[in-house]
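Support case: user asked for a sample of complex input and structure output to validate their parser. Sending the pair below.
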Amino acid sequence: MKLRLILALVVAVTAIRSGSATEQSIVLASTTSVEASGLLANILPQFTAKTGIAVNVVAEGTGKAMDTARRGDADLLLVHDPDAEQQFISEGHGATRRQIAWNDFVIVGPSADPAHVRGGNDGVVALKTIASAQAPFVARGDNSGTSAAELRLWKIAGQTPDTLNKEKWYRDIGGGMGQALNAASAMDAYTLSDRGTWLSFNNKGSLVIVVEGDPRLINRYDVIELNPQRHAGAKLGIAKVFADWLVSSEGQQAIGAFQIAGHRLFNPSAESPK
Amino acid sequence: MHDFLEIVGLSIGVSLTATALAAAIGMPTGAALAMFSFRGRRLAVVLINAFFGLPPVVVGLVLYLAFSRSGPLGFLELLFTPAAMVIAQTVLAMPIIAALVHRAAERAWARYGDELICDGASRLQAIPQILHIIRADLITATLAGFGRTVSEVGAVILVGGNIRGLTRTMTTTIALQTSQGELPLALALGAVLVGISISISATVFAFAGSASTAGGDEVR
């Protein structure tokens, strides 16, 4: 009786397992913003309907996504940290990199604006002002693309992670964009967000955009195909089909058509990379 | 709505499968630990009781590295599949079931052990009989194991990857919705999860509760 039960379970598990294996599928390791904003959920059905290829998205932040790919657990990467991407490629893990879209980072903060930075368009001046006002600032601290962008900006403002982490007003939460926005909203703090996650985020509280439009705040999304010599086990063939679709006119159109409340979240840029 | 049913179905399917596997391994293990004496038995008992509190995120991390394509079990291609989630939750639930069964079996064995052996049963043959005597405790142990599996998020989000339509469970959906600032939705899903736990527990007791209380009382 017990043996029959175990056998039935083994069969059930195998069935679940093969259900996912028989259809064509790839694992896409991605930054959280393309998932949390709803972009991928919006455009993937179009691609899957056309090609029959299922794209299994593991959204985990740029740094961790790259680690997943380094270990060989992803077939394709969709990330947004140019410096880390360059390193990934020069290590021999990545083969080709193509930009699919761009948007920008914005500094958001409480509408009461204790540091008086609202309305500016210079990210560095804003960070310096926030620092001298010692106004609370929530940092991702999770090795993500947005975290890297934030630290680059702080560096221009004359601060390093070492000096920042000594400050009480600098609050490293070690979490995703949504967690950072939840935290900033709860503690009336400033934070840096990608525009896509910000627009789709639904717990803004008193948070508003305080600084935008600095050319240093541009945010580029790249699709990276893996190097077949390092990642022979990955499904690189069908991964390329998806990468090609993202930069094709059809894919670009799908990306550009994705809107929330009348705002376009990602600007297609495969034709003319920013 | 289709998404929602799929998520609820996967959550329950994965957790029930893991609980059944954990019970199939944990019940005989718990009984055997009470009935056989061997070197290292005390250590084994201490360990299964300690693993009651095994952090799901640690189990998830260890299995993640093991199932990675560059890990020792990478050839199984289990990472980011429901099967990996079943395995992780089985590891989490097994010690709970084994420890609770061990506790009950110890009492039953002290009371009925000699009788069973006199009747000519070997210790191995006596395991099912001991389990039968403590059947009421088996239900509690199994429900405790199920509670552990259906509620945890740390292990399944690591080995499953929270992939929409494939490995997204109720708990990982709650985590995702919270990160999207969809707090009311996250809370509503949390309420559904609690409701499901209550109904499963109630169903089990309705079917098995009255029939087996007698056995449980005899032991005490």
